[in-house]
UniProtKB/TrEMBL annotation:
This is Acid ceramidase. One of its GO terms (molecular function) is fatty acid amide hydrolase activity. It comes from Thrips palmi (Melon thrips). The gene is LOC117651021. One of its GO terms (biological process) is fatty acid metabolic process. Pfam families: CBAH, NAAA-beta.
């Protein structure tokens, strides 16, 4: 009876996800259009695009970022039981986490109706039970410390794998030192504020940006930049070893399919945020990280961007859920003159980016123009150039594993500025 009950639970969960992620969200398009319009307030395009908007007209120079000291650092002690590791951090950021999740809930209700968060409250707790034990325990601990339901905490931890739009750049200086920069953009379609020209969710995420130092036996294992309440790794540095960022890859066979397969019992796939945690903990070289990120089956497609400590140790790993392609430093992209850098946004390197979201070509143009004499400053300038910098950008980070350098700051994009 227990076996049959579990089989029925899996079947019912599978059915709910298929229905909610397809027919429920796509049916009744008349109502959907009205809800999307209400959520975004796009009744006039000037509400989202300032009248003096220009997509790209120049490269920024001599940008001076704010101090990283403004972003707090927390110790994540890997020797502690998983339920206790994140307690101090999430208790400090509890109000911000609750406000953010409520905002995401309200905007999802406007876009898709209340069925989506019904699924979060009733279905995702079942998903939590199937996650690897260590990470499941961490999520339970965060739920207990914040008072937020485990379904919503689970959503918070898988959301970034499917809904972020980012720019990552790996570059080698003229002296052979590797540097790595990134913008993390998040919040598209989640509450456009027409008065302030901002995304509500993006604004609420910025106070949740934290620096993390993962330690074991009082030794630093790696450093990372996270949103409070998120346990995976999106931006990280392993001192004297390598750096890593991830960018979302937009594919039809994406994360939704992977979630359904996972719940249906196909557990041979890896969650991106958990895989990157394992890579940062276990690997001690660029080569190890590259192999570990390229091989496993994944729940969702993604781009992994890596840099090491030796000359030319840089690459973009384009991952399908069961395939990979490695684009090494030295291989030029379209319109690229120098061979000392790589740029990755959210589209495959061998295809032209869409006209409505071309951050790649401005970034390439500016990297070529600014050159590799002072790569950290070039990265700061390029990542502050519109539309590489846009209304979705929450933070910018510039790193070097060789120098054990991680600088991060909260970003803003005053008008005129593209919304994504």
């Amino acid at each position: 009876m227990f076996y049959l009950a579990k089989k029925m639970e899996i079947w019912w969960l599978h059915f709910l996800l298929v229905v909610l992620m397809s027919s429920t969200m796509l049916a009744d398009m008349g109502r959907q259009k009205g809800n999307i319009k209400a959520a975004l307030n796009f009744s006039h395009m000037e509400n989202i695009r300032p009248s003096n908007f220009t997509p790209f007209d120049h490269c920024e120079t001599a940008v001076v970022p704010p101090s990283s000291l403004d972003i707090p650092e927390y110790i994540i002690n890997l020797d502690l039981p998983p339920r206790e590791r994140w307690r101090k951090l999430v208790q400090d950021k509890k109000e911000g986490i609750i406000t953010l999740i409520e905002n995401m809930k309200n905007n999802s209700d406007l876009l898709f109706g209340k069925s989506v968060f019904w699924m979060v409250d009733h279905v995702l707790p079942l998903l939590t039970k199937t996650l690897p034990k260590e990470y499941r325990e961490e999520l339970i601990g965060i739920s207990e410390a914040t008072g937020v339901g485990i379904g919503e905490i689970t959503l918070f931890n898988v959301f970034y794998e499917f809904f972020s739009a980012c720019t990552s750049i790996v570059a080698q200086s003229d002296s052979g030192v590797m540097f790595h920069g990134r913008n993390l953009d998040f919040g598209l379609f989640l509450g456009w504020d027409p008065l302030n020209h901002t995304w509500q969710t993006t604004s609420l995420l910025k106070p949740l940006v934290v620096q993390l130092r993962f330690v074991r036996g009082n030794n630093t294992v790696y450093r990372a930049v996270n949103y409070a309440g998120y346990t995976g790794v999106l931006t990280a540095l392993k001192p004297k070893k390598f750096t890593l960022t991830i960018d979302e890859r937009f594919r039809i066979n994406g994360g939704y399919v992977g979630i359904i397969e996972w719940i249906s019992g196909m557990r041979n796939q890896q969650w991106i945020g958990f895989l990157t945690r394992q890579v940062m903990e276990k690997c001690n070289s660029f080569t190890c990280a590259q192999k570990m990120l390229a091989k496993p089956s994944l729940v969702a497609p993604v781009y992994f961007i890596l840099s090491g400590i030796s000359s030319k140790e840089g690459c973009i790993i384009t991952r399908g859920r069961n395939s990979f392609n490695i684009w090494p430093l030295g291989q030029k992209q379209k319109k690229q003159m120098g061979n000392w850098f790589l740029v990755q946004t959210n589209f495959d390197q061998w295809r032209d980016p869409p006209f409505y979201d071309d951050r790649r070509n401005p970034a390439i143009h500016c990297m070529d123009q600014l050159g590799n004499k002072d790569v950290p400053q070039s990265l700061v300038n390029v990542l502050s150039t519109r539309p590489v910098l846009n209304k979705l950008t929450t933070y910018t980070a510039v790193m070097s594993a060789e120098k054990d350098m991680l600088k991060v700051w909260i970003q803003s994009c005053p008008d005129p500025c593209w919304p994504w």
